[in-house]
Amino acid sequence: MTTRTVAGVVGRRLLGAVPLLLAVSLVAYLLLYRAADPVARLRRLPGVREEDVLRLVEQQGLDVPWYEGWWRWLTGFVQGDWGVSTTDRSRNAIEPIMDALPATLELMLLATLVSVVLALVVGVVSATRQGSATDHALGALAYVGFAVPTFVAGVLLQLGAVWMRDEGWAVLPFALGTVVALAGLAGVRRGGVASRAALAGGVALATVSLLLWDRLGGDGATVLFTSQRFSFESEGDVFSVDHLQHLVLPVLTLAIVNVAVWSRFQRAALAEELASDHVAAARARGLPERRVVLGHALRTSLGPLVTLVALDLGAVLSGAVVTETVFSWPGMGLLLRDAAVARDINVAMGIVMLGAVAVVLAALLADLLYAALDPRVDLRGGHR
Q: Would you say the C-alpha torsion 168, 169, 173, 178 has a positive or negative sign?
């Protein structure tokens, strides 16, 4: 496709996204407006004066209908005026959002990088070993990762970090062995006899860990931190070991579900490509299997993974609310939760709209990358 054609497709997609963004802003504003009655809550407090109530009504726009408040917010937003934070009248709504954005970007990008690498490895290994013990074990692990809610995974990782501090490094191989054994057991129960090797290996690893438990006992030193972004003594130093110790758990929490989902899509796409005619032709020419997989099948199978990654990347920009709340990570997700609870509509709406715009742009980027990776895809619809 020519540059002019691509520009036309991009322009039409962006224009088509305008009604969607308007609908998102309308629904979000209505939900935030109806979420609570701050006036009634304020009146219940002892010693509250009537002028305090009137000031709150004026600050939060409760003296006008919700649709008028939405229109007032929308016209200001498109002109670059995001309003004033009602929880801190000295700051514009965009200021706390920009303060929280670096923490969310850092967490999101690192979690995405880890997830993509692991999903590619797991997907390729599963697709090239279909029906094997490895395939069944990785599939079972993916189902377990997908089934565990994010907040449960976060809390379990926090408990594991505390356990590691008290008991030592034997916790890591014990936990890994337990997970592998459970995954193998799930495969066996589904009839996958080949998963018995994973079950036996997991049990053996957990058993050895228990035997070495006393030799790897904990000394009370913190290995992985369970909350915040920095310790007090290393505040702001993103290249410190302390910061890395704070990053590990929230990154793993986000990666668990991502890898579980993305790896299965990658496996299915690559397995389909490996059965295609052009791969059969490459094999008929006598090419090594590694070159066939990595040089011919893998590239054209990346489309679904690219789409998933791009869409999830845009969604997470608005803040991984659950993960950031569990780990008290000072990003946009935690800020969104606090703003919604405090009914700070301007801040909450700013985060919601940033996330909506990011999803739209990410979907467009995914389509462009899909077309670049697979020449058979036509951006105007269908296949060539």
A: positive
Identify any residues that bridge with 377 across adjacent strands, giving them in sequence order: 383
pTM of the model: 0.80
Q: Between 303-317 and 345-373, two packed helices, what is the crossing angle to 10 degrees?
A: 170
For the stretch 49-84, pLDDT in tens is 878 777 777 766 677 788 888 998 899 999 988 888
The residues that bridge with 92 in the sheet, in sequence order, are 84
Classify burial at 4, counting beta carbons within 10 Å of its beta carbon; exposed 0-12, middle 13-18, buried 19 or more: exposed
Cα gap 376→254, rounded to integer Å: 33
End-to-end CA distance of the chain: 11
Residue type (1 letter), 26: L
Q: What amino acid is encoded at 94 in this protein?
A: I
pLDDT in tens, 239-252: 788 888 889 899 99
Answer yes or no: are the C-beta atoms of 230 and 243 closer than 8 Å: yes
